[in-house]
Design brief:
The chain is α+β, with helices and mostly antiparallel strands and 265 residues long. It has seven helices and eleven strands. The protein is globular. The mean pLDDT is 92.
């Protein structure tokens, strides 16, 4: 367990890739239980400490509360989107601009649940024919406005292929937002076997070639041949995305605190 910071109210840890944040259906190891067993939290179970999560394959910073007052304070910070979170990622190809915004609405993917895709009028119309009893209400939720900010750190090579190291800020904080936005932008995250090349979800965020030109124009998109080559080279790697920075008001003292950690790739 790599503890970055701890006081009587909270603990910040650097989660490795491949570990769940909380217990799932299968009895796999999870970081919340490890934190609970290793720290003296004034809470009944590990689940009570959880105020946010990272996906199993995402490494990086997680904060856990150690008291009821800290849980209330942290939940308020996250609910009001006052927590500053930045991720570092390696993406396919060289991004042309040094920084920019990707603003594309996201919807649940009715064809490949539980994944998401970029929302379009055509896909919203397709939902009208679905039965909520069969597909579930979550699938039929309206599109969620989503904005990702990217900043180029460096343009690099990965096993002889061009990749870009970027800082990603999820301004809206949607489920799988960074992954689907980067795929639609034409620079999927290296090692992403869901939204990347030939992944489990629809490619290019579910957009057709015409929709890509209209909604996500990018003449420097990583070509399909390059995406295939990088995907093959990274097939045994977890996605190269790391929760690098966390900044928020301390739940008790109300002082602004910030933490950062190096990415493993």
């Amino acid at each position: 367990l790599q503890i970055v910071f701890q006081d009587k109210d909270m603990v910040v840890v650097d989660k490795p890739s491949g570990v769940l944040t909380v217990a799932g259906k299968e009895p796999n190891p999870n970081i919340a239980q490890t934190v609970f067993d290793s720290t003296k939290a004034d809470l009944p179970t590990a689940d009570h400490m959880v105020v946010h999560r990272l996906g199993m394959d995402t490494s990086g910073l997680l904060v856990f509360a150690k008291s009821k007052a800290a849980v209330r304070g942290m939940n308020g910070e996250f609910r009001e989107r006052k927590v500053k979170r930045q991720y570092e990622a390696l993406v396919m190809g060289h991004i042309a601009k040094d920084e920019g915004l990707i603003s594309l609405p996201i919807m649940r993917d009715y064809e490949f649940p539980p994944y998401v895709r970029i929302s379009t009028d055509d896909h919203q119309r397709a939902l009208l024919d679905l039965d909520p009893e069969e597909v579930g209400k979550k699938i039929l939720e309206g599109p969620k406005a989503s904005i990702t900010k990217y900043q180029v750190v460096s343009r690099e090579e990965f096993l002889g292929h061009p990749v870009t190291r970027v800082t990603l800020t999820s301004i809206s904080g949607r489920y799988h937002q960074l992954n689907v936005h980067m795929a639609a932008f034409g620079h999927p995250i290296v090692g992403d076997s869901v939204y990347g090349y030939n992944g489990e979800a629809v490619s290019n965020g579910g957009l057709t070639d015409e929709e890509l030109k209209e909604l996500a124009p990018n003449p420097n998109r990583a070509e399909e041949r390059l995406q295939a080559a990088i995907a093959a080279a990274a097939k045994d790697m977890p996605p190269c995305v790391h929760a690098k920075y966390l900044g928020f008001r301390h739940p008790i003292s109300k002082k602004f605190v910030e933490f950062s950690t190096e990415s493993p790739f």
